[in-house]
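[Discussion] Sanity-checking designs against the backbone

I'm trying to build intuition for which residues belong where. Below is a C-alpha cell string of 519 positions. I'd appreciate it if someone posts a full sequence so I can compare it with mine line by line.
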C-alpha cells in the first residue's frame, strides 16, 4: 500500500518512496524538545504525530531509523529572529531554578540539582522528557534505551558542528563578520526560502517577519543567520577557530541528522519533522546549511509539520492558566493512554483544540477498546466465520492512515468494525475456519499505530502489584556492583529487573525505576 504524505517542501501530497534502493529502510529525523523545562502537551502533539508517522511506516512494512534530538544548548529565547538574540533557554532554566532555590520553592524532584550547573539542569529535564515520552508510548524511547545515540544532545556534537562551519566558510556559504560572529550567507544559496516561502527579498523588505536589528550593520543580508557566536560569558561554551563560544540552534539539527542518518546517503535523509513554527527559520536554515555543505539538492526529501495545539480554544500560556504538561494532566487523574489518544486524534495538519471534555471522551474510547481487547483475548479460541469484522477492516484502516495519516478516519473504521462485536455476551457459535484470535491480531495491528492499548494495560499494573521492596533491594545491589566496577553483575541485575517488567535509569539524583511500557 502506498503511503501518501503532505510535503511542506512542495505544498502537496505525494507518494512516499524512500531513498533506500531496496525500498525498505526509512531515515527520519524529528526536532525534539529543548530540555529547559518539562515538555508541554503542545510539544507532545508534535512528537506524538511523528510517532504515529513512524508507526504507520512500520505498519506498511518499512524499517524506520528514527532520531529525535534533545536540545541542550544554543536555543535562544528570540530564535525567530536568530543570531543569538535573547537568552539561552538553558540559562533561563538555571535562573528559574536558582530563584526557586532562593525562595525555598524548588520542586521536590529538582531538589538535588545544582542550578548553577547547566549540564545538570539539562540532564534533569532530559530525564524527565524520557520518562514522559515513555509514559506516552513514543516508540523511539525503547530503542534509545539500547542505543542512546538515537536521542542525541548537541553538546556532544560540538566537534562536527565546528567542522560544518569550517566547510561552509570554505564553500563561500559562510563568512566571519566584523562582530566576530560566523554567519551563513543566504545570497550564496539560491534555494533559501523554498520551504517556507520566506525568500531573502521578502525578509529584506520586512514582509518576512522580524529581523534582528542589532546585527544588521555587520551582515551582508538581513536574513543571514548565525552559525557560531564567540561569547565567553555564555552559559555553555567551547573553543573554536572563531573564539570560545557556542553554536547556532539550526546548526545543531543539521549536524546530528547528517551524523546519525545521512552517512550512507551523502547527507540526504527521507523525512524530517517538527511543529509548524519550525518551518521558518529553523528548517529553512537547516536546509541551507546542510545542502550548502553537501552540495545536494535536498536535505530531507519529505518535510512533515504538525500544526499547533490550543487549549479550550485559546493559545496555551502559563499566564492564562491553560498550560499543561503530561504531569499536570496525570495529577488530575488522566491516563497516559487517554492523553495520547486526545493528542493524536485530530489530523496533524489541522489545529487541534485540547479540551477536558475531549480527554474524557478519549478515556471512554480507550476503555471501550480495552474491553473489546480483553473479550477477544478471553474468547480467542472460539471459532469465527471468516473474515471477522476487524480483520476485514484492517485494509481500510491502513488505507486511511496511508491517506496522509487520516487518524480519525482510521479510528472510524476501527469503531465501525468493533460495533459488530457484542462484548456483553459470549461470541455466537461460528462455523468458519478462523477464530477470535484473528480478530485480536487485527485489533493489535491497529493499536500498533494508535499505541494506546498497551499503555492502558501497563497503567493498570499499579505499583502496589509490584514488589517494590524487591526492586529497591535489586537496585541497591546493582549500585553496589557498579561501585565495585563489577559491570557483569550490574548488567545482570538490570536484565533481571527488565524481565520483571521494570526499567531503571541512572540520573543525577540516583537510580529511578518505572514499569516497562512495551510498544
Ligand atoms: P521546544 O521545546 O520549544 O524546542 O519545542 C519542541 C517542539 O514542540 C517543536 O517542534 C515545536 O514546534 C513544538 N511545539 C511547541 N508548541 C507547540 C504547540 N502548541 N503545538 C504543537 N507543537 C508545538
Ligand atoms: Zn531542530
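Best answer:
Here's mine. Compare freely.
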Amino acid at each position: 500500500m502506498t503511503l501518501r504524505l503532505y510535503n511542506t517542501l512542495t505544498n502537496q501530497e505525494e507518494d512516499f518512496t524512500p531513498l533506500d534502493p531496496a525500498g525498505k529502510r526509512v531515515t527520519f529525523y524529528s526536532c525534539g524538545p529543548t530540555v529547559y523545562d518539562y515538555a508541554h502537551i503542545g510539544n507532545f502533539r508534535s512528537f506524538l504525530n511523528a510517532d504515529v508517522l513512524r508507526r504507520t511506516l512500520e505498519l506498511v512494512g518499512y524499517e524506520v531509523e528514527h532520531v529525535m534530538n534533545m536540545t541542550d544548548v544554543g536555543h535562544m529565547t528570540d530564535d525567530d529572529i536568530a543570531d543569538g538574540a535573547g537568552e539561552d533557554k538553558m540559562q533561563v532554566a538555571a535562573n528559574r531554578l536558582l530563584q526557586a532555590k532562593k525562595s525555598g520553592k524548588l520542586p521536590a524532584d529538582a531538589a538535588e540539582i545544582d542550578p548553577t550547573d547547566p549540564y545538570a539542569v539539562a540532564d534533569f529535564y532530559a530525564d524527565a522528557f524520557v520518562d514522559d515520552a515513555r509514559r506516552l508510548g513514543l516508540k523511539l524511547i525503547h530503542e534509545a534505551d539500547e542505543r542512546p545515540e538515537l536521542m542525541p544532545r548537541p553538546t556532544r556534537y560540538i566537534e562536527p558542528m565546528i567542522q560544518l562551519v569550517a566547510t561552509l566558510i570554505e564553500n563561500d556559504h559562510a563568512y566571519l563578520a566584523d562582530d566576530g560572529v560566523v554567519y551563513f550567507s543566504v545570497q550564496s544559496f539560491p534555494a533559501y526560502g523554498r520551504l517556507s516561502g520566506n525568500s531573502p527579498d521578502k525578509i529584506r523588505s520586512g514582509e518576512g517577519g522580524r529581523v534582528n536589528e542589532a546585527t544588521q550593520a555587520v551582515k551582508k543580508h538581513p536574513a543571514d543567520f548565525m552559525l557560531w557566536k564567540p561569547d565567553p560569558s555564555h552559559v555553555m561554551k567551547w573553543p573554536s577557530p572563531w573564539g570560545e563560544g557556542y553554536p547556532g540552534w539550526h546548526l545543531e539539527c543539521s549536524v546530528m541528522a547528517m551524523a546519525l542518518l545521512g552517512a550512507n546517503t551523502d547527507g540526504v535523509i527521507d523525512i524530517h519533522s517538527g511543529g509548524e513554527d519550525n518551518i521558518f527559520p529553523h528548517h529553512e536554515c537547516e536546509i541551507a546549511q546542510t545542502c550548502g555543505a553537501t552540495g545536494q539538492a535536498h536535505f530531507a526529501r519529505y518535510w512533515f509539520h504538525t500544526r499547533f495545539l490550543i487549549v479550550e480554544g485559546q493559545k496555551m500560556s502559563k499566564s492564562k492558566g491553560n498550560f499543561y504538561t503530561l504531569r499536570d494532566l496525570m495529577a488530575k487523574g488522566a491516563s497516559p493512554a487517554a492523553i495520547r489518544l486526545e493528542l493524536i486524534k485530530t489530523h496533524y495538519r489541522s489545529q487541534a483544540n485540547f479540551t477536558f471534555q475531549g480527554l474524557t471522551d478519549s478515556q471512554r474510547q480507550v476503555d471501550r477498546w480495552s474491553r473489546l481487547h480483553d473479550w477477544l483475548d478471553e474468547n480467542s479460541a472460539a471459532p469465527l466465520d471468516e473474515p471477522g469484522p476487524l480483520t476485514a477492516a484492517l485494509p481500510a484502516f491502513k488505507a486511511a492512515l496511508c491517506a496522509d495519516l487520516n487518524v480519525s478516519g482510521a479510528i472510524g473504521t476501527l469503531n465501525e468494525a468493533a460495533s459488530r462485536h457484542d462484548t456483553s455476551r459470549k461470541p455466537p457459535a461460528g462455523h468458519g475456519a478462523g477464530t477470535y484470535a484473528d480478530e485480536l491480531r487485527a485489533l493489535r495491528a491497529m493499536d500498533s499505530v494508535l499505541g494506546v492499548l498497551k499503555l492502558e494495560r501497563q497503567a493498570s499494573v499499579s505499583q502496589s502489584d509490584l514488589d517494590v521492596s524487591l526492586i529497591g533491594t535489586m537496585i541497591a545491589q546493582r549500585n553496589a556492583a557498579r561501585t565495585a566496577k563489577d559491570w557483569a553483575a550490574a548488567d545482570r541485575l538490570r536484565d533481571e529487573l527488565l524481565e520483571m517488567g521494570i526499567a531503571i535509569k541512572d540520573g543525577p539524583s540516583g537510580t529511578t525505576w518505572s514499569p516497562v511500557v512495551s510498544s
